[in-house]
Amino acid sequence: GEDVEQSLFLSVREGDSSVINCTYTDSSSTYLYWYKQEPGAGLQLLTYIFSNMDMKQDQRLTVLLNKKDKHLSLRIADTQTGDSAIYFCAVSEGGADGLTFGKGTHLIIQP
Amino acid sequence: DAGVIQSPRHEVTEMGQEVTLRCKPISGHNSLFWYRQTMMRGLELLIYFNNNVPIDDSGMPEDRFSAKMPNASFSTLKIQPSEPRDSAVYFCASRDDRTVYNEKLFFGSGTQLSVL
């Protein structure tokens, strides 16, 4: 089955850019997502990209997709304390199947 | 809409007891998913329903786990008997599969289960 890998922790200084990386194994993955989980809360959809796109920008968020290398990244510009959370990469082949999630990257913001 | 609603938020029980987790999906969503989150294994898909019918339950750990969706607005996940290793956060999520390119999952706040 699909395997999605992420680093467990990322530490950045407030104001710097954060780049969270994700790799996946199934080249037929069609939909790729980033979810954010704040302490004690459920996962909240942050942004998503279709496999026919290379990049998507949404305010401070930039998603880059390298289909050849099966690599997805999330860049958060001007990282703020409110960005402190766990970020999950998730992929889907489409259809009625559920998503396959990575284990999540804990983003730690240093003052 | 109030979003996906799960209850209870927290459940503490003793080993061997029956536990029932409840979920109300977003109105109009026709797919419902149960996930389990632990530090060791991350997020695991347990089972999902489409139009109230279980489609894939291959993620259900063992026969102690069962899930039902009697109607479009309610689902339960039951563990009987519960064991300490079942301690985790259980999430319910729903999705509207009727719209093309609308694969977005919406999650509830989760049920934190502790089995002592």
Keywords:
heterodimer, A: 111 residues, mainly beta, six-stranded mixed sheet, five-stranded antiparallel sheet, B: 116 residues, 0% helix, 53% strand, globular
Write the layout of secondary structure elements.
The complex is a heterodimer of chains A (111) and B (116).
Chain A: E1 4-6, E2 9-13, E3 18-24, E4 31-37, E5 43-50, E6 55-58, E7 61-66, E8 71-76, E9 85-92, E10 100-101, E11 105-110
Parallel strand pairs in A: 2-11
Antiparallel strand pairs in A: 1-3, 3-8, 4-5, 4-9, 6-7, 7-8, 9-10, 9-11
Chain B: E1 5-7, E2 10-13, E3 19-24, E4 31-38, E5 42-50, E6 53-56, E7 65-71, E8 74-79, E9 88-95, E10 106-107, E11 111-115
Parallel strand pairs in B: 2-11
Antiparallel strand pairs in B: 1-3, 3-8, 4-5, 4-9, 5-6, 7-8, 9-10, 9-11
Return the structural class of chain B.
mainly beta
The overall strand count of chain A is: 11
Measured as a percent range, the helix fraction of chain B is under 10%
Q: Cα-atom Rg of chain B, whole angstroms?
A: 14 Å
Poorly predicted ranges of chain B:
none
Specify Rg of chain A, calculated over alpha carbons: 13 Å
Protein chain pair with the most extensive contact, residues per chain:
A-B, 24 and 24 residues
Helix content of chain A: under 10%
